[in-house]
Specification:
Layout (H helix, E strand, L loop, with lengths): L21 E9 L16 H11 L17 E2 L8 E11 L6 H7 L5 E8 L12 E9 L11 H8 L9 H4 L29 E2 L10 E2 L6 H4 L15 E10 L5 E9 L3 H12 L3 E4 L15 E15 L2 E10 L6 H13 L6 H6 L16 E7 L1 H6 L13 H23 L1 H7 L29
Parallel strand pairs: 3-13, 7-11
Antiparallel strand pairs: 1-3, 1-4, 2-3, 5-12, 5-13, 6-8, 8-9, 10-11, 11-12
Helix pairs in contact: 1-2, 6-7
Length: 464
């Protein structure tokens, strides 16, 4: 059994153990694919469940308290949702870290998509949950998601075709050979034929000086392809970072085939960057986020959260797809909060809702359904322990990612970025979600546009 003490200078001892457990903070990363989130949940495959078993097999936890994390003072800095990854997650507890080689023993008992970077000795009272004062998340958003014409909803496409026409499928999605359930025409029999079209879907560089911007393009390591299990091509810094995204407008000929014509020129240029950052800045401050989560009522104090910053200034290119790196820093976040903040921001950029809807959603007396962006693009980037590090800087090691930056970056490129890119290429999670972003599925996007809570069913995503 472990015995507790409040003495800051004395560690707990493990009765009958050969070595004394020490209070440490373990810093690690994981790719969330295939897991039901971070927190242990009976019957579910979780990151925490994997880590618990690895700690036991590595000799960090004795048999007597195996599977009883409270007895070794276990705590996590952040809970992540299903499928969400992390680069800088931190857990703490009292573990047997001797003999040397604790990190290697842990990693040898973990799958490759979970990697321990290292650990720091901390005060006996340290808790990675209570002492974490800020958390930064990143959402990699495909640039095409902000284009009102790309992957439009069914009603808008039908309206553009005129009366009597039948929407068959999105040409961009048909390039991957996918069908869109509930949003397509008749797929049975031999009447539906997709006409073979010679269509260039790559993002083209534009050398026009009129389109020059100062959008930052992040150059990734050229070793990315060799690090990843999938082929990921690394984008280099472009002299003209504003690019043309050639999209298609769906038209149907007499035989029911999908026709395409180039119509949209969209890039994340200075104008688009300024507007998107303005929208994201609406979240900055202390607000009631009850509409951006589930199971939390407006009168629950837990609904009040503070966002310190929310920016989207960097574009990275992965295997030909441009992603905007959206970084949000806050004290803490609720279930689905970031994905819902992203979902509403994208809806506003696509002209599905007004910017004022964000402030409306903060109202305690308003209950609306906010669209939630797919989970695959989200990852926990870093946890911060600023106050703790300052208080104990003369007596204890700093709890931070500083010593593991290179290792963390390599893991991010190999496991997280490659997974996000490969998933979008194979399944088109973002593209399919965009097709659902309409007033039929989210009538509250129209909240206040035609009088208080008037949910008029009108076409979404008018061209800008």
């Amino acid at each position: 059994m472990l015995t507790t003490t409040t003495d800051e200078e004395t560690d707990m001892s493990c009765g009958g153990g050969v070595t004394e457990p020490q209070k440490v903070a373990i810093i690690f990363a994981f790719c969330g694919v295939g897991y039901q989130g971070m927190q242990k949940n009976p019957g579910a495959k979780t990151i925490e469940g994997e880590l618990e078993e690895a700690l036991f097999h590595a000799g960090a936890v004795p048999e007597s308290i195996r599977g009883k994390p409270k007895l070794y003072d276990f705590a996590r800095s952040a809970r992540t949702d299903k499928g969400v990854s992390a680069v800088g997650q931190v857990v703490s507890g009292r573990f047997n870290v001797d003999p040397p080689g604790f990190v290697d023993r842990l990693n040898s008992n973990l799958p490759n998509q979970i990697r321990i970077f290292g650990y720091k000795h901390v005060t006996p009272s340290f808790s990675s949950k209570k002492f974490c004062d800020r958390r930064r998340y990143v959402y990699l958003l495909p640039v095409f998601a902000l284009d009102p014409i790309s992957h439009r909803d069914r009603e808008t496409v039908m309206a553009s075709l005129g009366p009597g026409e039948e929407y068959v499928k999105c040409f961009e999605c048909s390039e991957r050979g996918r069908k869109i359930p509930g949003l397509v025409g008749n797929w049975k029999g031999t009447n539906f034929v997709t006409k073979s079209l010679d269509f260039q879907s790559d993002i083209l560089s534009n050398n026009s000086s009129a389109l020059r911007t100062d959008v930052k393009i992040e150059a990734l390591s050229s070793n990315l392809a060799s690090l990843s299990s999938v082929d990921v091509e690394v984008g280099s810094i472009q002299e003209d970072s504003c690019k043309l995204n050639t999209n298609s407008t769906e038209k149907i000929n007499g035989e029911g085939n999908v026709m395409a014509e180039t119509k949209s020129k969209f890039c994340y240029g200075e104008k688009e960057k300024e507007r998107f950052n303005r929208i994201l800045s609406c979240y900055v401050g202390s607000y009631n986020f009850h509409n951006f989560t589930t199971r939390t009522k407006a009168d629950d104090p837990a609904a009040n959260r503070q966002i310190i910053s929310f920016t989207a200034n960097t574009v990275i290119n992965l295997d030909g797809i441009d992603f905007i790196k959206c970084e949000v820093l806050g004290k803490s976040f609720m279930l689905h909060q970031i994905r819902k903040m992203m979902g509403l921001a994208v809806a506003i950029m696509r002209n599905c809702a007004s910017e004022s809807l964000i402030q409306t959603a903060f109202s305690k007396d308003v209950n609306i359904t906010v669209p939630m962006a797919p989970e695959v693009g989200l990852y926990l980037d870093e946890c911060f322990f600023t106050s703790y590090n300052k208080k104990f800087e003369d007596s204890h090691e700093e709890v931070s990612m500083e010593a593991y930056k290179e290792e963390a970056e390599a893991f991010k490129l190999k496991h997280i970025y490659s997974h996000i890119c490969a998933t979008e290429r194979k399944y088109g999670n973002m593209a399919l979600w965009l097709h659902s972003l309409n007033y039929r599925n989210y009538p509250d996007l129209n909240f206040g546009s035609h009088g208080h809570n008037n949910r008029v069913q009108i076409s979404c995503s008018e061209e800008s």
